[in-house]
Structure prediction request, 464 residues.
Amino acid sequence: MSPTSQVPTLKALHALNPLQQPAYSSPQQLAEVVGKLRTLPPLVFAAECDKLRTKMASVAAGEAFMLQGGDCAETFADVTAANIQGKLRTLLSMAVVLTYAAQVPIVKVGRMAGQFAKPRSSATETRDGITLPAYRGDAVNGFDFTTEAREPDPQRLLDVYHSSSATLNLTRAFVTGGFAHLRSVHSWNADFVKNSAAGVQYQNLANEIDRALAFMVACGIDDDVFRTVDFYSSHEALILEYEHALTRIDSRTGQPYGTSGHFLWIGERTRQLYGAHVELLRHVRNPLGVKLGPETTADNALDLADRLDPDHEPGRITFITRMGAGKVREVLPDIVAKVIASGRQVAWVCDPMHGNTFEARNGYKTRAFSDVMAELNGFFDVHEELGTWPGGVHVELTGDDVTECVGGGDDLVEADLVSRYQTLCDPRLNRNQSLELAFLVAERLTTGRIKRPNPVQAYVPLTF
Ligand code: PEP
Ligand code: CO
Prediction:
């Protein structure tokens, strides 16, 4: 592994002309913020990252499935107990469906506690003849369309740190303090089960789990093994100042870790082989994700794997493919086949969101639930044909009853988008749509069409 001394300096990273970085007007202020960030405690502990890397190795080996989800962009205003709880219970409900309906261990990872910065396709936005810097997420500037709000402000990086810290603190409390106890399986969805097909399906599954728990207790087995769950944070490592300031040397091993989150990914727009993002992340020991869009070639993927994971370390690399429903069957097979032929075992995760965004006739940026499922089905089919393990799903979702994606069991149409369109960035699945997706994925995993390379023989979900 790379020795500590090789972590590049920020100056060296900037010499690589990093893409998607804010144009800060005061280097002095930025330096002060970075200095302050360097003094603040790490948000995650290196050993937790190691544990997640081991779990991702199980995903790569076909023995577990990754569920990664959360907002497209977290916002400071939404760092509230209700919002965090809502996302968590959506993810826990989905995980329960996948664990018990698909009989596969689930690695649970939130797009949470750090997902505050966004890459943009255009650096500016024009409205009514006025052009201002694009909104790059609360980490960088404000959403309001004013000169003041759109000015990148380095102080916001401190707000990212504190908002992530608060989110992580409550999440840790929830997942270890009883909220995630399997006994509460009903309560995660109590207020919406009645009115949707997926809700009813969920209720039935929850009833079965209740009966199993009651049986265990009657047999004298303590059901407190289900009291806590392992839950991890993740985000796109985009803003170099922030990620660099939180790159810390683990006192146990002397190795560098990105301590802003457990799992860090490199986005589709910043994964240049010799670019600054790859350069920084190749030096940290975290499990890493790399987004692969429809233009990716097998050689691109192999080069990235070689650069980020020269030692072929189990669990190190997750390729998050986001090809679009119309392209996945054409583009993915060659990439998977050649990566496998190279002798690498990576985790393959499908992001069925980012290749399927379109503008509705009323101007809203949306996604169709049917396209999301079509990409997922394409992903599953490709892996089935190649005999490789479809290792997980990466989704943008919320715990709220928003109307941002069309379709799904509630049959949302474009005219519904106006009623509860709350995202500042990409459209998210609402709670019903998320649960429905979990059942459909569970079905794909259990129809027998998907064969696990290393079937978890008679998997009994004794932990959740
Ligand atoms: C994202 O995950 O929010 C994102 C911007 O994805 P991508 O890099 O795949 O476009
Ligand atoms: Co997004």
